[in-house]
Please model this.
Amino acid sequence: MLRSILLAATASLGLAGAAHAATQTFDLSNGGSDTQAVRTYTQGDLTLNVTAATYSYDHGTKTYAFGAETVGTQSYDYGLGVKSYWGDNHEVDGFLKNEAIVLSFSKAVRLDTLKFSYVDTNDHFGLFTGDEKTYEGYARIGNGFFSNYDFQNDYTNTVFAIGAYQSDDDWKMKKITVSYDDTPTPSPVPLPAAAWMLIAGIGGLAAMGRRKG
Model:
């Protein structure tokens, strides 16, 4: 009897603490034209900070290195690009410098879908994760002025960098959809109160056993 009750209580606690997945879409586009070092977006309880970077491939170490220079994200019709030098266009491109948009979330998220604009048949993007910008691989975006890319693998982190992978890649980032655990953190139960509740429950079960005997 006692074992059955404890198992039932454990199961109910497990259900109460189960993760709850939420999905949010951030619209990064607007109709203006301006360059900012940091852009901040908020959807529900999730915050996204967007910055920009340039990166290169080190053939000696066979790793990708991100530059320390400060560049700005540029908004100009249907999404964000990167402004990394004087005269640079309004897109994320690989001409002269490989440019990337860095996405920093307030909690760990899973990448679901990216929506691009200004894309054509030869455009690709490279994906990096984490503060150390670990290289994950690259993918072809597709064709047409707008293109969605749905992630099949589970890329979960707080930081991602999405960059132009080749010298002839150029595109803008319009939207990003992510999923994450939005389960509220439960308030801790004071140990003395929890202990007294357990003792009272065990005592009650013992009394029931004696009455039945």
